[in-house]
Amino acid sequence: MIEIYNNFELIGVNPVYSEFTWTRRFSRSGEFRLVTSFTTEYFEKLAEGNVLYKRDVDEAGIIERRQVISTIKGDLALVVEGRHLSTMLDRRVFSLQGGMPLNQAINNIINNNFMAPAGNLRSMEVDGLRFMPHNIPAVNISIESRNMNAYSQIVNLCEENGLGFKIRYNLRNRTYDLMFLNPTETDVAFSKEFGNIVEQNYMDDKQPYKNVVIIEDQHIHNNTVFTGINRREVAISAPREGQSHFTQSALDALHENRAIKILSSTVNPYSQQFLYLQDWDIGSIVLTRNRELDFSKREVISEIVEIYGEEGLSLVVNMGDHIERRR
Q1: Are residue 197 and residue 316 in the same domain, yes or no?
Q2: Considering Cα of 158, then 159, then 164, then 168, what sign does the dihedral take?
């Protein structure tokens, strides 16, 4: 069910559409696209800033773009697009430097830039944003961020440490609940042999891959591990000196320039062996297997694309590296 809200007030239900795509992601924002016939009623209800809420997956997105276009038949169509609520964090920049636990870094970013005291111009708490309790891995990091986009940094920290996050549209409390998520172990397996895969696409990509980091001509990470033709260098700047800062900057650069391997599966949404939203969901750790490629691996479901059309629902599921990393 698709519900349309303005300031937590329901203004519409289940708009008729010719195309609807709802993209769900674990470590970054999802997005949506809805195409419907143009009417004055839909144009008013599907206004910029209003919220689409998808009740079955408990996710919501903000309408950010509308287009009225002419179809090949000469009719008018309304195209509505937007991103999920987690991109609310895209509205702040922050600065934070130093070595600290991951939990402390995330708390600092959120509390100091979004949960400021009521009356502060930067506070979203007055608009209903709540920072929910979370269980974040106990790892130490070195962070060097100066006037950086908060959403981008949260995405980087989550992807590097296997976390997900979302902002839940809490209709009961009229709040935006920011929460961090850990992957969930399951016994689910995706394979043509199980009859739950319609088709699979595999890609590995070493085009962006680097394995040696040179920082300000002062520090070289993995200097002697890779040699000759196997050595792939990238140069970066480090905001601050010091071994711990250099090491963290190098690890960040290696993560950003890592080799990519993706197995994308079109899943049968009506398969009874492993039920979508019951046995598996975004963030689930599943076994994915392709015998022709001799590929078998347990990975986190990082993206689910729900596509609704004339033939019903189809699901495209991506495991491991995020689909936007393909370039």
Answers
A1: yes
A2: positive
Query: 237: domain range?
Result: 212-256
What is residue 15's predicted lDDT score, i.e. its pLDDT? 92
Tokens coding 202: 């595999």
Q: Which among 207, 232, 233, 200 is positioned nearest to 327, based on CA atoms?
A: 207
Does the pLDDT of residue 2 top 60, yes or no?
A: yes
Which pTM value belongs to this model? 0.85
- Our CA angle for 20, 23, 29, nearest 5°, is 135
CATH of the domain at 141: 3.55.50.10
Confidence grade of residue 327 (pLDDT, cut at 50, 70, 90)? very low
| Mean of pLDDT values over 167-171 | 98
Q: Do 191 and 297 belong to one domain?
A: yes
Residue 276 is classified by DSSP as: B
Radius of gyration of the chain (CA): 22
Residue 49's contacts (CB-CB under 8 Å, 6 or more residues apart) are 6, 62, 63
Q: What is the pLDDT of residue 239?
A: 66
Q: How many domains does the chain have?
A: 4
Residue 143: CB atoms within 10 Å: 24
